[in-house]
Amino acid sequence: MSNNKDYDNDLSNIHIHNIDLKNREIYLHSYISENDEEPGVDYRSAIIFEKNIRYLNSMSIEPILIHMHLPGGMWSDCLGIYDAIKFSKSKTILLAYGSVESASSVILQAADLRILMPNTNVLIHYGSFSINEEHSKAAASSVQWNERECDKMVDIFTEKCCISEIAKNKNWKKMMAKKHIISQLANKCDWILTASEAVEYNFADGVFGSKRFNNIEELKNIVKKK
């Protein structure tokens, strides 16, 4: 029978280690420190997440629910989280809160089931880039790397968009979907979508609280059938 000590341990794991072992849930957010500024994705939040998802995968292959409340952050750390989700042997559900911005909009695409809270917006952009190299060749190399990574981001969204309802209605092929994404980023810099608009573009699978996605157990049952 559960006792107060069990509850204390569960609460400690959630608040200190960002993991709910009993329910196979992970909390993905910025590293909490005394600094008021929210860093978004960084090496600390990435490492904690990678440990947690690895640990749950070692326990069983039952679905893992990821609660994400996370703005943008460091691109390389974002990709570390993206890969950890993408190659999880357990099916993953990502439930996003607040605003899904920049790097976290890419992380969202890795999950098997991507659900947004009703008031969650999705912001897509290329992010910022600076050069601190003293040598011209190193600077040129950095620019080339940045261009490749921008292309990688666009390809991730294109893969989803080209099978969306909006692509189907407009009869877009893959290249047309990619051109549309590039044009939106060029014209708007920050391309901001409501939860329902993100679903139309297949950047998310649904909105929490809607008919098909109205409780956590339903989400877990849906992903088991995928």
What is shown here, in short?
The chain is of the alpha/beta class and 226 residues long.
Largest sheet at a glance? Answer: 6 strands, mixed
N to C succession of SSEs:
HEEHEHEEHEEHHHEHEH
The global form is: globular
**Helix content estimate:** 40-55%
On the 0-100 scale, what is the average pLDDT? 90
Number of helices: 9
* Radius of gyration from CA coordinates: 19 Å
Low-confidence stretches: none
Strand order of the largest sheet: 1-2-3-4-6-9
Task: Determine the structural class based on helices, strands and strand pairing.
Answer: alpha/beta
Strand content: 15-25%
N-end to C-end Cα span: 34 Å
Query: How many distinct beta strands?
Result: 9
Structure, described:
The model has no long low-confidence stretch (mean pLDDT 90). The radius of gyration is 19 Å and the shape is globular. It contains nine helices and nine strands. With 226 residues, it is an alpha/beta fold. The strands form two sheets. A six-stranded mixed sheet has the order 1-2-3-4-6-9, sandwiched between helices. It has a three-stranded mixed sheet with strand order 5-7-8.
SSE topology sketch:
Elements: H1 4-16, E1 19-20, E2 25-29, H2 43-59, E3 64-69, H3 75-86, E4 92-96, E5 99-101, H4 103-108, E6 113-116, E7 121-124, H5 136-161, H6 165-170, H7 174-188, E8 191-193, H8 195-200, E9 206-207, H9 216-224
Parallel strand pairs: 2-3, 3-4, 4-6, 5-7, 6-9
Antiparallel strand pairs: 1-2, 7-8
Helix pairs in contact: 2-3, 5-7
